[in-house]
Design goal:
By secondary structure, this protein is mainly α. Helix content is 65%, strand content 3%. The chain is built from 20 helices and 5 strands. The strands form 2 sheets. It has a 3-stranded antiparallel beta sheet. The radius of gyration is 23 Å and the shape is globular.
Length: 454
């Protein structure tokens, strides 16, 4: 049964659970729970079965506005914003166009502060007092939905939507924060180079903070850049802690703080933070997947593997699950599983170089077992690196697996010199375990800004 407008295009009638779930971009189970636990305004036909339901878009949008204004429910999943029904076609923005927009918005900000004083908040800081207009809010909500997909296409759409929100309201701090989040994840879930994504993420996060210093999301986005790009764990920790002080019930901040703690080797605090994130957003695939990885690094391999396999079965296109399982498989000597998960991760990320490495690994494994697998991988990785399509860090990982410590150290030094973001994992990456007592490896960790390991 299709949705009807009833003469009002802004108030369509949605006649099935599937259509209601589609309005929010969630599954039917989630919206059914929202009805029973959070008062989602779903109606039923008189004398009809309980499954005969309908709802009006205007009622759902009003419920969403109330939900966003209320304190979050720790037992409920985050509400994904519906995609707005725009009357004009979506515009596609190139990175250059986005840079121009950010510059224009910066100029607008200076004009605003030059023309009038910002209003003081209760905390004594200054923020721009303007409420965002309806068009900007619609694009912002659309961006939130796309951002949660963690797919290359979804994150690209999120950049478009957040940018459109800024175009419609250059003083909309949350839109800048959303743009920063999208760029932070594009580096991981697509093939956008870190040298493009992180500087844009920093510019957007800093603009959001300039507009509203109390916006915890923006401080968390800046912390992400501080650690993974600027290699400044102390600054990252300060920004994460500031973000949590401002918004202690923000699931994303607890999530990202957990992965930061994991990456510097603080596994017990990382588990505590990821549990908080899960309590605040129990339906987030990204949070559950990262919990699996943290469990693995904390020495709870069987739990990690079981959790990640469950996620893989329910969401087979989710990138993180595959790359985490590949890490566990390689560490455990399951070469067939490692090759399979590497190929699946490359497919989820639309990563052609990664697919080429996975194919080379499969051929090497079939030809001569584990050593031949890593040798074939390294040959492909070095060719890709020569063509500026790979990283020195990946070559270092494979060399370490082959026991070629000299080549591993040389490529890690090159990775550090090239400012590759993957070097943030130096303290915990399993292939480098045999190198961690070496003085040259410890010197690399110090240069990378990482705390010394016992």
């Amino acid at each position: 049964m299709g949705a009807e407008t009833g003469g009002d295009p802004g108030n369509r009638q949605l006649k099935t659970w599937k259509e209601i779930a589609g309005f929010f971009g969630r599954d039917e189970r989630t919206v059914k729970r929202w009805e029973s636990e959070r008062g989602l305004p779903v109606r039923r036909l008189p004398n009809g079965s309980r499954s005969t339901v309908y709802a009006y878009e205007r009622d759902l949008a009003a419920w969403l506005d109330r939900s966003e204004a209320a304190p979050p429910d720790p037992g409920a999943g985050a509400v994904a914003a519906p995609r707005p029904q725009m009357e004009w076609a979506r515009r596609r923005y190139t990175p250059a166009a986005i840079a121009v927009i950010l510059c224009a918005a910066t100029a607008a900000l200076f004009l605003v502060f030059g023309a009038r004083s910002a209003l003081p908040t209760a905390a004594g800081v200054q923020t721009v007092a303007d409420a965002p207009n309806a068009e900007a809010v619609s694009f912002y909500r659309a961006g939130l939905h796309e951002w949660q997909t963690r797919t290359p296409a979804g994150l690209t759409h999120a950049v478009d939507d957040f940018t459109q929100a800024i175009v419609h309201d250059p003083l909309y701090a949350k839109a800048y924060s959303g743009l920063a989040d999208a760029y932070n994840l594009l580096r991981e879930f697509s093939t956008m180079p870190p040298g493009e994504s992180f500087p844009r993420a920093r510019a957007a996060a800093e603009r959001a903070i300039a507009l509203d210093p109390t916006l915890g999301d923006a401080h968390a986005a800046l912390a992400f850049v501080d650690f993974y790009w600027s290699r400044d764990p102390q600054a990252a920790r300060r920004e994460f802690q500031k973000a949590l002080a401002l918004e202690p019930r923000n699931a994303t901040t607890h999530h990202w703080y957990a992965t930061f703690l994991m990456t510097i080797g603080a596994f017990a605090p990382a588990l505590a933070e990821i549990d908080k994130a899960e309590a605040l957003d129990s339906e987030s695939t990204a949070i559950l997947a990262d919990k699996g990885l943290i469990l693995f690094y904390a020495g709870r391999r069987d739990e990690a593997f079981a959790l990640l396999q469950r996620i893989e079965q329910s969401e087979p296109r989710f990138y993180s699950t595959h790359i985490y399982l590949a890490t566990i498989d390689a560490d455990g000597g399951d070469d067939t599983g490692f090759v399979r998960e590497m190929a699946a991760a490359a497919a989820a990320r639309n990563d052609q170089p990664g697919a080429a490495v996975a194919a080379a690994a499969a051929q090497g494994l079939a030809r001569g077992g584990r050593i031949a697998m890593f040798q074939a991988m390294r040959a492909e990785q070095k060719q890709l690196f020569a063509d500026d399509q790979g990283t020195a860090y990946e070559i270092a990982e494979t060399s370490a697996e082959l026991g070629d410590r000299q080549d591993a150290i040389a490529n890690l030094q090159l990775s550090l010199a090239r400012h590759e973001s993957k070097i943030a994992a130096l303290a915990i990456d399993p292939p480098f375990a045999p190198l961690r007592t070496r003085s040259d490896f410890r010197a690399l960790m110090t240069k990378a800004g990482l705390p010394p390991q016992p």
